[in-house]
């Protein structure tokens, strides 16, 4: 009884009895185990729910990423390169903008529906490229647009638009610079004293202050008596300068203005400017000085004359290929046998005789004689001297008959007078 009562009385607790203790602890432990299992199940449920939520987030994010990747693939067309020619435009210039479009996809081709250029400032002369076709994986294609710089100086950004068949549009801005700074031309060196008939060297400096190279650079002499007539420089890089030389031989004294024209190209666009160089030409202190002396005029017929004399070189240099001829004037004409007279070489202090024949009609009282010669450098010079022919009467047939008649009359009168004198002597 005690044992049973002890067992029963201690069924809800652990005591020192072996059986009761074992049974009571076993029941208690089983209850705790059940309790702990229920707690674990709840915890696992919560954990499973949380993991499921995270998995859904990851899947959703992955799907979104795939969608974005797919969109990126649709926009895989890129402008990979461009260049502008000329690199810097001047106002009014026409240039080109060339772009390279590449399909960045490595697995599929892309159909290019339209490629165009848009700008509000720079005038785009090219029309859009429509229905270009398919561009294979990794392939590139270039497009060239023609533009005109109708805007002020500055940097502008026309846009390149590339539209594909998926209605995706790629936009790319390209910088285009407009700078109207021209090339420069100035006098590098010119002598202070310039004399008639003497060759003078004139040096000019041509510079390029632009940001890009200029091509086809040349300087043309627009005045006479300048050699060479032009100097070609070619390409002139940015911030570079060149010095060129011209030789000028003036033909007359006084102030003269030499004109030089600078020409260059910016791309395919031609530009030019003019440089005026004023010079004061004085009388030569040396060189050739031709003087006419001993001039005689002889009438040779009706209004015809022969002019003779000497031509002297009073200068300090030789005159070569000296030629004298009758100049052009109203009522004046050179006739044979000597319309012109070749003298040849005249050294300093040398002289030569000449003879010219001229016909002068009307009231002409002076005849122009042109003297031409070359200096030691082969430069041709000329000067004009005027010779007076006066009012010279030329014998005619009627005047000769009148003269003969007068002689006959005088002879007859003399005979009568002689006869009268003889008769009076006989009467005496």
Folded structure, characterized:
The protein is an alpha+beta fold. It folds into four domains: about 35-75; about 75-180, Sandwich (Immunoglobulin-like), CATH 2.60.40; about 185-280, Immunoglobulin-like; about 290-390, Sandwich (Immunoglobulin-like), CATH 2.60.40.1230. The chain is about 20% helix and about 45% strand. The protein contains three helices and 28 strands. The chain has helices spanning about 1-10, 20-75, 395-425, and strands at about 75-85, 90, 95-105, 110-120, 125, 130-135, 140-150, 155, 160-165, 170-175, 175-180, 185-190, 195, 200-210, 215-220, 225, 230-235, 240-250, 255-265, 270-280, 290-300, 305-315, 320-325, 330-335, 340-345, 350-360, 365-375, 380-390. The strands form seven sheets. It has a five-stranded mixed beta sheet, with no helix packed on it. Strands 1-3-7-5 form a four-stranded antiparallel beta sheet, with no helix packed on it. Strands 6-4-9-10 form a four-stranded antiparallel beta sheet, with no helix packed on it. A hairpin with a 2-residue loop joins strand 19 and strand 20 (about 270-280). The radius of gyration is 58 Å and the shape is rod-shaped. The chain starts with a helix and ends with a helix. The model is unreliable at about 1-40, about 55-75 and about 390-400 (pLDDT under 50).
């Amino acid at each position: 009884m005690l044992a049973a009562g002890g067992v029963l009385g201690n069924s809800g607790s652990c005591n020192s009895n072996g059986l009761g203790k074992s049974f009571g602890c076993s029941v208690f432990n089983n209850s705790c185990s059940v309790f702990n299992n229920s707690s674990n199940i709840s915890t696992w449920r919560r954990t499973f729910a949380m993991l499921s939520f995270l998995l859904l987030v990851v899947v959703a994010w992955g799907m979104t990423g795939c969608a974005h990747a797919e969109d990126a693939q649709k926009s895989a067309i890129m402008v990979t390169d461009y260049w502008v020619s000329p690199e810097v435009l001047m106002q009014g210039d026409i240039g080109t903008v060339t772009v390279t479009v590449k399909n960045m996809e490595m697995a599929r081709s892309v159909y290019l529906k339209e490629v165009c250029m848009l700008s509000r400032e720079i005038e785009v002369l090219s029309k859009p490229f429509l229905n270009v076709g398919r561009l294979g994986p990794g392939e590139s294609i270039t497009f060239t647009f023609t533009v005109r710089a109708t805007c002020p100086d500055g940097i502008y950004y026309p846009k390149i638009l590339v539209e594909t068949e998926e209605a995706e549009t790629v936009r790319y801005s390209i910088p285009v610079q407009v700078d109207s700074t021209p090339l420069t031309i100035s006098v590098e060196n010119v002598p202070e004293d310039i004399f008639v008939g003497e060759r003078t060297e004139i040096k000019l400096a041509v510079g390029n202050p632009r940001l890009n190279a200029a091509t086809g650079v040349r300087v043309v002499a627009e005045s006479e008596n300048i050699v060479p007539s032009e100097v070609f420089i070619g390409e002139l890089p940015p911030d570079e300068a060149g010095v060129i030389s011209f030789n000028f031989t003036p033909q007359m004294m006084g102030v003269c203005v030499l004109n030089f024209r600078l020409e260059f190209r910016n791309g395919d666009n031609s530009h030019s400017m003019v440089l005026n160089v004023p010079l004061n030409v004085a009388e030569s202190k040396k060189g050739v000085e031709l003087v006419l002396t001993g001039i005689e005029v002889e009438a040779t017929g009706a209004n015809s004359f022969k002019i003779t004399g000497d031509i002297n070189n009073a200068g300090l240099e030789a005159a070569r290929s000296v030629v004298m001829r009758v100049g052009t004037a109203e009522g004046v004409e050179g006739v044979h046998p000597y319309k012109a007279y070749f003298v040849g070489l005249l050294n300093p202090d040398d002289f030569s005789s000449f003879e010219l024949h001229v016909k002068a009609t009307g009231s002409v009282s002076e005849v122009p004689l042109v003297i031409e010669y070359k200096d030691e450098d082969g430069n041709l010079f000329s000067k004009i001297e005027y010779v007076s022919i006066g009012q010279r009467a030329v014998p005619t047939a009627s005047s000769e008959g009148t003269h003969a008649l007068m002689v006959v009359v005088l002879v007859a009168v003399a005979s009568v007078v002689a006869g009268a004198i003889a008769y009076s002597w006989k009467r005496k």
